[in-house]
Amino acid sequence: MIHNFKHGFSAAPNEFLKDKTLSSSAKICLTRLIGYDGVKSEHICPKIATLAEATGLGPATVKRCLKELKERGLIVSTRRGKRMSNIYDVIPQSSW
Fold first, then answer.
1. pLDDT by residue (tens digit) across 81-93?
2. DSSP assignment, residue 44?
3. Does a structural domain hold residue 69?
4. E strand residue ranges, the chain
5. For 5-32, b where at least 16 C-beta lie within 10 A, e where not — what string?
């Protein structure tokens, strides 16, 4: 069966999805960040509100997930300036 994913889709490495030490919300956020890679620009830089809307999570949950992903070394964020979204780089893991 062929599906028409009108609004696109995101893929994530199976090993990452199986990681029981990472919250489900963080997995959703990282999968969505991976999906943004190279779509509109060379950088991944969604606003918190945009990422919240895209994942169905609240803004506070998205912030906690990004913190969790940074602490685990799965992403690096770079501030672009006041009132601008951060740039996020997904760090591939050797197990992926």
1. 888 899 999 988 7
2. B
3. yes
4. 75-78, 87-90
5. eeeeebebeeebeebeebeebbbbbbbb
Residues 6+ away with beta carbon under 8 Å from 76? 70, 88, 89, 91
Side chain identity at 23, as an amino acid letter? S
Chain centroid, CA 51 distance in Å = 8
Per-residue pLDDT reduced to its tens digit, 7-46: 667 778 888 889 999 999 999 999 999 888 766 667 888 9
Range of the domain at 73: 14-90
57: CATH:
1.10.10.10
> Could you tell me the pTM of the whole model?
0.84
Backbone φ and ψ for 76, nearest 5 degrees, come out as -125, 135
Residues whose CB is less than 8 angstroms from the CB of residue 82 and which lie 6 or more positions away in sequence, other chains included: none
